[in-house]
Amino acid sequence: MTTPPTPQQPQAQPQQAPQAPQAPNQAAPQPQAPAQQPQQAYAHAGAPVPPGAPAMAAAPAPAAPAPPSAWQQAMSNAYTSPIPIKRTNLGHALASEWTKIKSVRSTVWTLSIFLILVIGIGLLAVANTQSDDYQDVPFTVPAFFGLMLGQICLITLGVLVTSSEYGTGMIRTTFTASPQRHRVLAAKALIFFAIAFVASAGSILLVGLMASGAHSGPEAGDIAWGGTVVKGGLYVSLLGVLALAVGSMLRHSAGAITTMLGVVLVPAILPGFLGIWESTQKLGEKMGDYNAINSLAAIFQIDGPDSSTGSSQLVLLIVITAAAVVGAFALLEKRDV
Predict the structure, then answer these.
(1) Among 32, 49, 120, 330, which residue has the least CB neighbours within 10 Å?
(2) What is the C-alpha end-to-end distance of the chain, expressed in Å?
(3) Domain ranges of the chain
């Protein structure tokens, strides 16, 4: 009977003794500096390179630039406007305001009614007067009757130039396109004044030419009337600029128009009440001399060539208008839209 082989026991591996820790003061091995190439060694030593010396290793090639990212590619393909970018100035604001004022219907209606009143009433007065009626007055007197009503049209237009944009909210777009608000208000005032002066002075001049052509006989006087054209047009134009400043301060069309009607009509009515009491008679007389209707009458020399020419009334209106414009500029910079 065969005895099965006895399985061999695995031999135990000898355990290695633990290594002793290095001493803390033992210095770590320093990395060796790369050996210099032969040509570099000669170059550092300042000696010429012998012909048999091995060539210096070539410098590594620069890394290729990274490809552009997606947003860089999108910006490179972005639209570029062909319109050149220029620094804005007052000329651009003037062009903008001219485009706006000529494209709205309120300008056409108010100026048309103004011209109809001044020229129509003036020509009606020319047709109903004689040559001897112009002995002591200039030939532009018929235009005075139309200006008494026509000035209300310029006042209304002056208010609408500024207040209408506040009513529609378009003033936000205007100030976004032109953040310098004082430039916008200055452009509005200049454009409106130019339009109002051309319309008023031109209508007064036309009526004067018609009157001088129809009544140029020997009975008519020889009074210079060129100054009445300039002063009359300047007076009603300044009233319109005053209305523009009031509209900018109030920002409400109905309120600004009502205020300006009070400025024009109240001084013409109030002197009749102030003359009742002796203590207010002088105030009533001054108010009567400097209200809008009597100021125009003085400019057109209704009381004869020896009367006042309306210069003092015109200066007073210039001062009042300048003060109102300064107030409009100050409030425009301080208030939000």
Answers:
(1) 32
(2) 120
(3) 91-334
